[in-house]
Amino acid sequence: MKLATGLDRIVWKGTSSGCFSIKSIYRKVKERSWNPLEEAWKLPWNVGGPQRVQVFLWLVLKQRLLTQAERLKRGVSNDARCIIFGHGVEDVLHTIRDRDAVKKSIKEIIKGAYNWAKHYGSIHKRERIGRHTSMEDFMGIGKWICIRSNGVVKVNTRSASVGGVLRDQNGDWILGFNRRKGLCSIYEAELWDILDGVTLAQESFHGKLSIKTDIVEVIRDIKEAFGVKFCFNKTHYLSFTNEAFWSIDHVCKEDNMEADQITNLAFDREEGLQLYVDSLIITL
Description:
The protein is of the alpha/beta class. It has a domain at 134-276: Ribonuclease H-like superfamily/Ribonuclease H (Nucleotidyltransferase, domain 5, 2-Layer Sandwich), CATH 3.30.420. It has helices spanning 22-30, 43-46, 51-61, 68-74, 92-97, 100-125, 186-204, 216-225, 234-241, 257-264; strands at 144-153, 159-167, 173-183, 208-213, 246-250, 274-276. Strands 5-4-1-2-3-6 form a six-stranded mixed beta sheet, with helices on both faces. It is elongated and about 80 Å long.
């Protein structure tokens, strides 16, 4: 065998390149106890969702969420007890199963995922009507006005803008609207744009309202309180208490781009409510 010319150097046997890596030493130490072909490790990567969801599930399976037990293990805490309940050990199972707040969040996530799945399926089962709109937007018999709303908050300044689009039951453009707001949260911005959309629809048009938003918490609170907790005046409150005349449902962000685009336009516009009788949306 002919040896290569050059200077001798130290190489790491664990890799084909001879370079040391944490991954290679971990595999070397764990290779007898770790079976990468086990079905459990394939589950996170088979989930049809965003990569961040897959990574979260992977961390759950690997018991690597930064719980109190994990903090103690890493030496950044001296107590493994749950800081909320004050007893027991806060491990991954306790965090995702035992806390009431987590249970409620999981229920809302499942509900939102189900609504998203229904909406996504409807898009692929039937042709869209007009642009960005499907028959799923207009339910039941009679005249429906679909309000797609969106609130945007800039991270660096916390300044907000709100806006949305009104379309009729045939999917045709009725009106677009937006306005600049002051400092507020994304939750508050979403409430403001729904209020603007409902106000315009009820004052200028006659028909039932189908409201679409991508914030699950707003949908939940409006359905539970009908506006008592929010800024709706008495007229809007009376309309919202009769569910025969309105519905509010979740729409995924990817299918709410029309409202998102017109909302972002408000940052470059004058203050006050801006109305657009013609579509300003550029279809890519």
